[in-house]
Amino acid sequence: MTTLADLAELVRAPAALSVPGDVIAGAAAAGALSPRTPALAGASVLLYWAGMAANDWADRRLDAVERPERPIPSGRVTPAAAVGLAAGLTAAGVGLAAAVGGRRAAALAVPLAATIWGYDLLAKNTAAGPAVMAACRGLDVLLGASGGRLTRALPAAATVAAHTWTVTALSRREVTGADAALPKRTLAGTALVAASAAVAVPGAKRARAVDQAGVTDSAGTVDEVGGRARRTAGIAAVLPAVLAGWYAARYGAAQVEVVRDPSAGRVRAAVGAGITGLPALQGALTARGGAGLLGVAVAAAAPLGRRLARKVSPT
Q1: Widest Cα–Cα separation across the chain
Q2: Phi, psi angles (nearest 5°) of residue 306
Q3: Cα–Cα dist 185/202, whole Å
Q4: Is the pTM here over 0.90, yes or no?
Q5: What is the full DSSP assignment across 143-206?
Q6: Taken in order 129, 134, 135, 139, is the CA torsion positive or negative?
Q7: How far apart are CA 31 and CA 205, in angstroms?
Q8: What is the pLDDT of residues 147-174, one digit of tens each?
Q9: Contacts of 296 (CB under 8 A, 6+ apart)
Q10: d(CA 68, CA 64)
């Protein structure tokens, strides 16, 4: 009999901690953080889990050879149950996005769902695989931005997409091990991603954070207001770099180990680090969008994800 633990393994439940940050980072960048943001993040999680279930259904014959312990080849989940769950989660994810975000959210949720299924059924084992998976994450960021100005969220979407490309490229060598060149390329990509996320956005978003810090009561002096504003501006400028550095240190260190030893085990560890470390990157992007405390909260999912990954593999 299929258990909840079997289904959690099928959809790689802990890895979903890496998903809400996409939507939050997109919303922060677009100036669209609102009470509907958590619901859009929930829709994103449903679509992610759908993709994981569809992935295992599509790979069931290959997994019977390479990963016989997975839920479908081990007989703990039937193929029909897996594809039915994937379809149901897809419908639920798109429906929730449309219900809370209207036509603009639906206009992104539908192509996101189609791209997820396209990756699992068509693109995964082709040269286009990493790019298609990167597109999934980029669309996920834009889903969060659907209530604001999408163009403002394009840099954040591109940054998350670039990170996803590195993880996907590595994941294709989880069973066979990598050649020496692959981890060097992904490590260089990670450095560029971290550098991009570390740069605070000047102008409106940063000014908004400073203005909020400058609000005071009538007893406050101009100097006090100015000092508080300067301190807040300094934190706003530094926080994205701190969180991006945390992301680069964790994920980068795992890739350095692959450079030293490109065995399958090291590659799997690096992929896991890329998945569980993504919230730190999303936190940096959220902070860069002017929501510093929320960015820290998003980044806090990274250590939690690592602990849960010891119980249920995220890869």
Answers
A1: 73
A2: -65, -40
A3: 30
A4: no
A5: HHGGGS-HHHHHHHHHHHHHHHHHHHHHHTTTTT---SHHHHHHHHHHHHHHHHHHSPPPSHHH
A6: positive
A7: 8
A8: 999 999 999 999 999 999 999 999 999 9
A9: 239, 243, 283, 287
A10: 5
